[in-house]
Amino acid sequence: MEATQTIAPASKGVTAGVRELLDRITVLELTNPLAFATLAVAYIGSRIPWLDQGYGTDPDAWRVALTANHLLSEGDYLPSRLPGYPLHELVTAGGVRGWWILEGGWVTTNLSTVLISLVGVYLFAWLARKLELPHRGILTLAFAFAPLLWINSVMTMDYMWALTFLLSAYLALLYRAPTLAGISLGLAAGFRLTSLVMLPPFWLLLWRTDRRQDIQSLTLTSAAVTLGAYTLVLMKYGLNFLNFYDETVPLEEFIKRLGKDGLGIIGALALLAALALSLQRLRRFPDDLRRDAHVLTWTAAIVIFFISYTRLPHEIAYLVPIFPFGFFLMSRYLSRALLVGTLGVIVLAGFVDITSPEDTIGIDTSTFTSARIGKGMLLSDLETLRNQMDFARELRELTITNRDLETPAVVVTGFIYPELVMLYQDELTIGILEEDLEAISQLSDKGLASDERRRIDYVWLLEYDQFRKLQGQGRKIYYTADAARSTFAVYDYRPGYFGALELPLSRDNPSLGEGTATTDR
């Protein structure tokens, strides 16, 4: 009895302390200078491990660097991939004012993404305050450290640039500045064209708040800024710039990306559980759609971006614009305890998550019986960055030291091509196989990087006619296992069946660690 009497007050004291801490965090006003400065230090510090690990795990990040490098060295603009991301490519190249970001390599380009993402965090906090959202302190902290946003805030990609300007457009509308909102949305589209799908949700907001006269100003301004941003692309491609990689994604992969790569498995499960426990609160949602213009706007934004994603679900980062609006809705319909718990689990999923040896989702029970606790998205991303760079270096080393390699040789590298080229740009002559305005990326899909002294050419993939043409010129063709898979998927032939040789690399997937898979055919 005495022990019980001694412990109870201490237990109550701890509980009270936790509650007090939660009270302070949830109402924390992070737009205040000192509070935001503290957050900024933590935000930038948390990104340091990623800064010097390359441009990113997405080959598109290295494509952007390749485009910037080509623009600086040749004075010629070739988009990293269609439909073009001109403002991001110009920012990476240093822009027209001579801010030579690329000269510092991936550390400075990644840091530029960190800084613009931090601006986005501030705009999110400002929006949360302007909208008078409950629990906005914890909401902003979760937005700053959500794993998917974290990963994309520290690579040379356009997602967070576009999101920051999109949030700026929303904030401008709240302050009744439709022209400024149009400029911001146009800039967002200049970084990522799909940002323009926010126009319908913004129209709904203006319509429902009796500001129909602002719709024209918003629309025309955003269209004009977008058109100006795409001038370089239109000059080279005309309307053919509206091209993109269109490949079906299996349902299993689609589900995996939504769960594991979006919020993490435990994050997704936590959100589903929180929604189930909040059904009573969610009963207000249909009425709020009719009465609250902002709830309607958030919902419309989520729906339209999700529909866009289902049309082309190649990258889970396409859903980055959903996060702020999803968080706004969570703050409206989840209790404080559920909100804090759910957001905490989402952030935790960046470090620890449920995984399986095969990292796949199947229809049998083995998917569940083999599940275990493993690395979350953030730690996996760091590991993948290192594995990909190691693979590119191993590939380069093998091709220049392997005495069995017959020259002149053509090495079909697969998706590691832009990374390989940027890592060894000082040793290679970088160009294109042939001018092809229908190619998604002339510098990578149709790229050619030559080691003229050793008579070795590197390419991403080869169409069958190109493959045969090079063989007819007496070139010996080698390929990686990843390139073989991609060649069959894209061009419907297997290079190994027509005399090409697979390179004896330590792995068949650049993103996996050494020795994790056989390369025997």
Short summary of the structure?
With 521 residues, the protein is mainly alpha-helical. The protein has helices at residues 2-26, 33-51, 59-74, 86-93, 106-130, 136-145, 147-152, 159-174, 178-191, 199-208, 213-229, 231-237, 251-263, 265-277, 279-282, 285-291, 293-311, 322-333, 336-348, 366-369, 377-401, 417-423, 464-472, 481-491; strands at 352-355, 372-375, 409-412, 429-432, 447-451, 456-459, 476-479, 501-502. The strands form 2 sheets. It has a 6-stranded mixed β-sheet. It has a two-stranded antiparallel ribbon with strand order 1-2.
SSE inventory with pairings:
Layout: H1 2-26, H2 33-51, H3 59-74, H4 86-93, H5 106-130, H6 136-145, H7 147-152, H8 159-174, H9 178-191, H10 199-208, H11 213-229, H12 231-237, H13 251-263, H14 265-277, H15 279-282, H16 285-291, H17 293-311, H18 322-333, H19 336-348, E1 352-355, H20 366-369, E2 372-375, H21 377-401, E3 409-412, H22 417-423, E4 429-432, E5 447-451, E6 456-459, H23 464-472, E7 476-479, H24 481-491, E8 501-502
Parallel strand pairs: 3-6, 3-7, 7-8
Antiparallel strand pairs: 1-2, 4-5, 5-6
Description:
By secondary structure, the protein is mainly alpha-helical. Among the domains are: 1-25; 31-243, no CATH class; 381-502, no CATH class. 60% of the residues lie in helices and 6% in strands. The strands form 2 sheets. It has a 6-stranded mixed beta sheet. A two-stranded antiparallel ribbon has the order 1-2. A hairpin with a 4-residue loop joins β5 (447-451) and β6. The radius of gyration is 25 Å and the shape is globular. The N and C termini lie far apart (72 Å). The model is unreliable at 1-5 and 517-521 (pLDDT under 50).
